[in-house]
Task: inverse folding
C-alpha cells in the first residue's frame, strides 16, 4: 500500500532533520547505559536493539553498558534469598556475588548480544573482568547519621571503577563490533565487584573520550520544581540545582555521573526516558531531543 502524502512528507522531514547529526557524529563514540523498564518489555527491547544497530550502520560507534537489577532480584527470589539495599545499592556478599555474576555476565549480557545480532548488528559480550577491562576497588558508601556525622558503610563486594582498559574496547570498535559490557570489575587481587551500571557507563565514556553518554532511565529526564523536564543544562546549572535541592535523592548519583563525564571531556550527557520506543534516536538525531542534555554547549549544536 502506498504512503499517503502527509505520512511520506513526515518521514522525509525526519530523515532530513537527522542528516546533519548523522554527518556530525560519524565515527564518534556514543556510550549508552541500558537498564530499567527497557530491559523487561519485549517491544522496548527490540526498539533498543534496532536503535543500536542503526547508530552503527550510519557510522557511529555505540558501546552498550547494561544493568540487570530486576533479573538478579528474580533469581534470588527463585532461590529463596534476599539481598538488602542501602540508598539503592545492593549489599553483596560472596554468595550473592556468584548470582550477580551469573546473571549480569551470563544470561542478561548474552540476551542483549543476541538481540542486537538478530537485528543485524555484530555485538560482542564482555564483562569488566575480560582483559582486565574494568579495574575496580571496594566502594565504601558515605551515609549521614541522624546527628550529621558521616559514616562509611561497607556494602561487601560492591566496587567503583579505578581505570578502564580502552585498548580492549578500541580493538572491537575498530573491527566494527558493538561492545556490550556487564558492570563487573576486578581488583589487583582478583576479587570481583558488582558496580553500578551508570557509574561504569560514565567512566567508559570518559576513558573513550566519547562524544555522548546516554543514560536510559525510568523517568522523562531531570525535572524542575514544577516537575517539568529541563531539556538543556550546563555543568554550572547542574551544580546549582544539586546545591539548591532541586535535584535530590535517587537522581543525584545518576546526574552526578553525567556531570562528571562532561567535566572529564565527554561532549554531552543525556538522561532520557527508556520507557519510550526509539528514545536514543530521538535524542541524538533530532533538533529538540527528548530528555535532558547536560553540556557546556547549546542544544542546537549538541
Result:
Amino acid at each position: 500500500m502506498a504512503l499517503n502524502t502527509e505520512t511520506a512528507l513526515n518521514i522525509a522531514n525526519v530523515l532530513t532533520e537527522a542528516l546533519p547529526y548523522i554527518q556530525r557524529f560519524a565515527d564518534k563514540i556514543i556510550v549508552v547505559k541500558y537498564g530499567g523498564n527497557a530491559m523487561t518489555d519485549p517491544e522496548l527491547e527490540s526498539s533498543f536493539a534496532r536503535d543500536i544497530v542503526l547508530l552503527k550502520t550510519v557510522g557511529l560507534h555505540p558501546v552498550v553498558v547494561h544493568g540487570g537489577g530486576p533479573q538478579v532480584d528474580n533469581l534470588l527470589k527463585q532461590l529463596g534469598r534476599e539481598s538488602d539495599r542501602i540508598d539503592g545499592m545492593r549489599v553483596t556478599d560472596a554468595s550473592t556475588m556468584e548470582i550477580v555474576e551469573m546473571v549480569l555476565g551470563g544470561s542478561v549480557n548474552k540476551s542483549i548480544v543476541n538481540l542486537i545480532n538478530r537485528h543485524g548488528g555484530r555485538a560482542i559480550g564482555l564483562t569488566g573482568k575480560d582483559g582486565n577491562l574494568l579495574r575496580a576497588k571496594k566502594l565504601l558508601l558515605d551515609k549521614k547519621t541522624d546527628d550529621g556525622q558521616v559514616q562509611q558503610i561497607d556494602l561487601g563486594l560492591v566496587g567503583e571503577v579505578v581505570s578502564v582498559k580502552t585498548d580492549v574496547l578500541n580493538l572491537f570498535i575498530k573491527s566494527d563490533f558493538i561492545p556490550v559490557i556487564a558492570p563487573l570489575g576486578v581488583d589487583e587481587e582478583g576479587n570481583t565487584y558488582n558496580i553500578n551500571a551508570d557509574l561504569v557507563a560514565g567512566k567508559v565514556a570518559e576513558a573513550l573520550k566519547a562524544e555522548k553518554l546516554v543514560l536510559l532511565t525510568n523517568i522523562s529526564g531531570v525535572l524542575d520544581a514544577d516537575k517539568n523536564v529541563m531539556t538543556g543544562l550546563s555543568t554550572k546549572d547542574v551544580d546549582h540545582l544539586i546545591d539548591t535541592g532541586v535535584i535530590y535523592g535517587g537522581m543525584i548519583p545518576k546526574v552526578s555521573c553525567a556531570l562528571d563525564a562532561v567535566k572529564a571531556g565527554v561532549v554531552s550527557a543525556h538522561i532520557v526516558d527508556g520507557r519510550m520506543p526509539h528514545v536514543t534516536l530521538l535524542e541524538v538525531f533530532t533538533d529538540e531531543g527528548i530528555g535532558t542534555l547536560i553540556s557546556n554547549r547549546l542544544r542546537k549544536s549538541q
Observations:
- The chain has one domain: 26-295.
- Residues 94-118 form the longest helix (25 residues).
- The radius of gyration is 19 Å.
